[in-house]
Amino acid sequence: MEQHNIKIFRLFLFSLLLTISISSCGELSEEQSAQVDEALSDSLTSTTESWDVDMEIIEDGTKKMRLFGSYAATYTTEDSSSTRVKGPVIIHLYDSTGTITTRAYSERAVYDADNAIFELFGDVRVNTADNRKLTSEYLKWIQSEDIISTPKFVIITTPSDSIAGTGFEGTTDLSDDYTIEKPTGQFVID
């Protein structure tokens, strides 16, 4: 709704500036021209909407990720591009053989295409092929580094233990090489 109001405001501003420039008797001053250019460049945003989203990321001919969602809107400006996905959102991550290694679920997601960063919001769950699980309310995934993190409360469950805490950083496979800043819970030490 807020995005719709912004579009209406920009359209109104554009119409007002166009009316002023057409109705003025003389040329626009340099300052007025700069203001018109700034207002117009600020409103040059394209939006693409999709329903029943099924998006894949393929690198070097290999499927790396597949995302499903009920609705997506992609906002593109001269400087950036981001896609907002409404859920339920389901993400499958694949290894080099095409086998699903990790599944993630959330209520919504934002994909920053320029930086290859996903942010998952609301009832976030991550399940790996070797039965490791993570739950949180927010998760950030930096694709290029295969790093997931959250400053929020997180619970990690493995076949042998569980741990909870606030602040997490690790890889998408939830291997034992992760950090929880303020841990609590039970775990087995060999």
Arithmetic mean of pLDDT = 81
Strand content bin: over 45%
Can you count the beta strands?
Answer: 9
The main pleated sheet reads as: 9 strands, antiparallel
CATH class: Mainly Beta
Q: Please state the structural category.
A: alpha+beta
- Helix fraction bin: 10-25%
State the end-to-end CA separation.
54 Å
Enter the CATH topology name.
Answer: lipopolysaccharide transport protein A fold
Globular, elongated, flat, extended or rod-shaped: what is the shape? Answer: elongated
Query: What count of domains describes the coordinates?
Result: 1
What keywords describe this structure?
elongated; 190 residues; 18% helix; lipopolysaccharide transport protein A fold; nine-stranded antiparallel β-sheet
Overview in brief:
The protein is of the alpha+beta class and 190 residues long. The protein has helices at residues 2-23, 30-42; strands at residues 46-59, 62-76, 81-94, 100-112, 117-128, 133-142, 147-157, 162-171, 179-186. InterPro entries: LipoPS_assembly_LptC-rel (IPR010664), LptC (IPR026265).
Please, could you describe this protein's structure?
It comes from Fodinibius salicampi. This is LPS export ABC transporter periplasmic protein LptC. With 190 residues, the protein is of the alpha+beta class. It has helices at residues 2-23, 30-42, and strands at 46-59, 62-76, 81-94, 100-112, 117-128, 133-142, 147-157, 162-171, 179-186. The chain has a single domain (47-186), classed as Lipopolysaccharide (LPS) transport protein A like domain (lipopolysaccharide transport protein A fold, Sandwich), CATH 2.60.450.10. The protein has a nine-stranded antiparallel sheet, with no helix packed on it. α1 (2-23) packs antiparallel against α2.
